[in-house]
Amino acid sequence: MSAYLKSHPTREGFFGAYGGAMLPPPLVPHFAAIREAYDRLSKSADFINELRYIRKHFQGRPTPISHLKNLSAICGGAQLYAKREDLNHTGAHKLNHCMAEGLLARFMGKTKLMAETGAGQHGVALATAAAYFGMECEIHMGEIDIAKEAPNVTRMKLLGATVVPVSFGGRSLKEAVDSCFMSYMSQADTALFAIGSVVGPHPFPMMVRDFQHVVGVEAREQFLDMTGELPDIVTACVGGGSNAMGIFSGFIDDDVALYGVEPCGTSSKLGEHAATITYGVDGEIHGFKTMVLKDAAGEPAPVHTIASGLDYPGVGPEHAYLHRTGRVNYTGADDKEALGAFFALSRHEGIIPALESAHAVAFAMREAKAHPGKSILINLSGRGDKDIDYVTENHGFGEGL
Ligand SMILES: Cc1ncc(COP(=O)(O)O)c(C=O)c1O
């Protein structure tokens, strides 16, 4: 295991000043039990073998790396490659941690999995895990996202999940987390709140990162095998930051530049983007310390991005830490650039990306010109089937982009 991963976070779940677990007293014993169960499971050969079996025979791992030859030629400069998490079962990286969280829930004797979802990918992945393990599933989703990501709502219901619409505040991802926490308080004895990213109180940022580490491990080996070298740059979109931590963790001890791409929405004005590291300040949200976009009253600010899965006014504590240490560079792509990348990857490579992943593609396309002869590996975190109705109804087929 990487020297970095072994030493981060601390036992209390801190990455430098960020992380920890600020919990309401009734949840303290439940999170302690999750920590203890994960400690035991992560050292268990049976758990590791069962997870490997699931990844191979159910998820379809390893996912490949594709050389984006046409897009590289169009952009001129660096060669672009994509780690194809869109080909992971259910169409995104989220299943990597959901199947492991399902195993954890079974080990703890829980009968229900519950979580928030933004784009619906985590909800679909968790509903899939619940079906696989024969558990109940409860997914909280903002009304705005329900309207925007209708195919994923149908998929969750087909998989047997109860979808709870969230109608307060901004009716988006932050409120879905609030709503799920409230519901979890009364059923923590029987349910596991399988948080959908590297956010939340300890141990979730560490645990979800460890479950997503498979992406980075595979990608490093595959890229070496394919090109004989490591990539010069690795990039991923950052909402909470799970797909980014998954791929970054495979290269964190290497001399490889890492770029997290935040959603810059429609402008740099508060409320019109969700670029937490770019514009945020230190604070606390949902029981952990991190960087936060705050309004004038010091509360989490409203956020906007075209990608529902990136629509969060906080970020995983490890990203805030890696920003402060300088090991990872954080940059952004706005709605228009992400849409441009969505159409470009579809048309020139035959891959329709999720709008979330399109942010990383947009950055790579922009950056390619500045790096002739270099290589950029994009974590293509998910496929865009969920987005095609929204995109074509609002932006046609990319005319003028
Ligand atoms: C395809 C895809 N990529 C990325 C994300 C953002 O999550 P994270 O930053 O945890 O990878 C989501 C969230 O729903 C998603 O569906």
UniProtKB/TrEMBL annotation:
Q: Which UniProt keywords apply?
A: Amino-acid biosynthesis, Aromatic amino acid biosynthesis, Lyase, Pyridoxal phosphate, Tryptophan biosynthesis
Pfam families xref list: PALP
- Annotated EC: 4.2.1.20
Reactions this protein catalyses: (1S,2R)-1-C-(indol-3-yl)glycerol 3-phosphate + L-serine = D-glyceraldehyde 3-phosphate + L-tryptophan + H2O
Does the keyword Chloroplast belong to this entry?
no
N6-(pyridoxal phosphate)lysine PTM positions read K94
- Keyword Acetylation tagged: no
Molecular function per GO:
tryptophan synthase activity
Top EC class, one word: lyase
Q: Where is the Tryptophan synthase beta chain-like PALP domain?
A: 60-382
Pathway it works in: Amino-acid biosynthesis; L-tryptophan biosynthesis; L-tryptophan from chorismate: step 5/5
One GO cellular component term of this record is: cytoplasm
Subunit details? Tetramer of two alpha and two beta chains.
Return the similarity comment.
Belongs to the TrpB family.
**Protein name in UniProt:** Tryptophan synthase beta chain
Gene symbol of the encoding locus: trpB
